[in-house]
Amino acid sequence: MSSSLALLAEIRQSSERRPFEVLKLAEPLLNKGTISQAGDDVWLVYEQVFLAAIDEGQIELAKAILITLQKRFSGSQRVKRLYGLVNEAAGHPGESKKLYDEIIEKDETNVLASKRIVAMLKAQGRYAQAIKELVSYLDVYANDFEGWLELAHLYLGQHMYAQAAFCIEEVILLQPANHYYHLCYAEINYTMGRLDIALKEYLRVVELSTDNVRGFYGVKLTADRILDLVKNRPKKDQLHFSLDNVPQQGTLERLSQLATERLVNAYSEANAACRTVNEQWLKE
Predict the structure, then answer these.
(1) Largest CA distance in the chain
(2) How many Å separate Cα 279 from the centre of its chain?
C-alpha cells in the first residue's frame, strides 16, 4: 500500500474528515489509477474522497466518484444517501428530502438518513420542522445523547428553556460524569430562575472539574442571588423555586466566599503565568 493510502487510512481510523488533506492525497491516486491498490478498502477510500469533495465544494468530483460507487453498489441505500448529500451541496434540498424519505420508508432504522433530514431543515432555518423530526427520531432512539444535545440546542435557539432542560436531563442520564453537561443544565436553570437546581448543578460541576472557572462563577452568582432573595423575602408567586429547598444563609455565604477565593486564586495563577511568559519574551 502506498504512503498516501496509508495516510488516508489513518485519517479514516481517527474519524477525522480533514477534507483538504484528503483531496491532496487522493488526487494522484485518482489520476494514476493507483487507488485500486487499497484492495478491499478501495470503496471506503472512494467514499472518503467523496465526502472530502462535498466539504470542499468540488461537486463535479463528488458526482464522478458517485457514478463509480453506483456501478459497484447498484440499489445501495448507502449510495442513495450520498446522492442526497450531492443534491444538498448543489442546492436541491427537495430532491435530497425525497431520497432520504425513500431510504427511511425502506429502512426505518436508517439513523443517518433521519439525521440528514434534521440537519437540512436546520440549515434552511425551518427550526419547528427540525424539532418535530428530531423528536420523532428520539422517540425511537432514546439513547442517542448527541440527538438530545442537538434537540436542546434547537430548543434554546427558540428560547424554549423548559424543553431544553428536559433534553439535557436525558443527556446527563446517558453521560453522568461529563461536567460540561451539568454546566449546561445549571445555566439553563439559572436562566429560568430555578436557582435551587442551578446551585446544585454548579456544585456538581466543580466537584467533577475542580478547576472549572465557569462552575465557580456559577456557584458565586447563584449563591449571592439566593442570599439576596432570602434577605428580601419576595412573594412566593414571584419565585420559580422554594426558598425551603436551598441551604441556610450561613452556608450560602460560605459557598460564595469559597467560590470567590477559588476565582481569585485561578486568576492570580493565570496572571503569574502571563507575567512569566512576558518576562521570558522580553529577555529574548
Answers:
(1) 78
(2) 39
